[in-house]
Amino acid sequence: MIRAVIIDVDDTLCMTEAASFVLENEVLAAMGRPPMTRELHLATWGDPLLEAMPKRSPGLDLDVFGPLFQTTMERYVAEGRLDVIPEENLRALDALIEADRSVLLLTSRAESEVRHMLEPGHAVASRVSGAYHRGNTRYGKPDPRAFDELLAHTGLSPAQCVYVGDSPGDAVAAGGAGMAFIACMQSGVRRLEDFDDRHVTAAIDAFPEVVPVVERLSRTPG
């Protein structure tokens, strides 16, 4: 029985990579640095931001980049250019909740990058029962221990959970933790053949398809 659906944020719950590419290059331009290529951004997509940026812009001063990125990100969010959750995805979250399943987030984002989604009144905050990020977990994906705090806090077992994500690292983390994994291919950033099929329980083309897939997995013995 699946009791909890754990969801990645970027390119799973909302499509983020393309907007993030523009945002990060805007910050680099403000710092007088040349833009990164889309190919480099894609190659490092999924890494925590402050680990990825030195690869995307060698020699970057992270102490300057970090605060400038935060203020620029807040502006993008306020302008509706980043972290826009489609209505059909919100309805999918509602359907999961109506089926008596907990909805939780687990992301590689820093706390400051996800905080706005957890503020009272945000459409996501009212639907999730917990959020786990770089600020409240000791390990990051693809390490299976990324789920340690979530499992400890909720009392859930891996067999009662399914993780929904878009990257091979998401799949490795879930598989290593002993939980089912649903690959969401909506962004087009990755292809199913990029994944180790040993860690992929099911694949979906768009996030709302998670509802019937979770129902099917919950009825499957073992």
UniProtKB/TrEMBL annotation:
What Pfam families does UniProt report for this protein, alphabetically?
HAD_2
**Gene Ontology BP, a term:** DNA repair
Q: Which InterPro entries match?
A: HAD-like_hydrolase_sf, HAD-like_sf, HAD_2, HAD_sf, PGP-like_dom2
Q: Which Gene3D superfamilies match?
A: HAD superfamily/HAD-like (3.40.50.1000), Putative phosphatase, domain 2 (1.10.150.240)
Q: Among its keywords, does the record have DNA damage? A: no
**Keyword field:** Hydrolase
UniProt KW Nucleotide-binding keyword: no
Output one GO MF annotation: phosphoglycolate phosphatase activity
Q: What is its EC number?
A: 3.1.3.18
Q: What class of enzyme is it?
A: hydrolase
Q: What is the protein's name according to its record?
A: Phosphoglycolate phosphatase
Which organism does this sequence originate in? Answer: Actinoplanes campanulatus
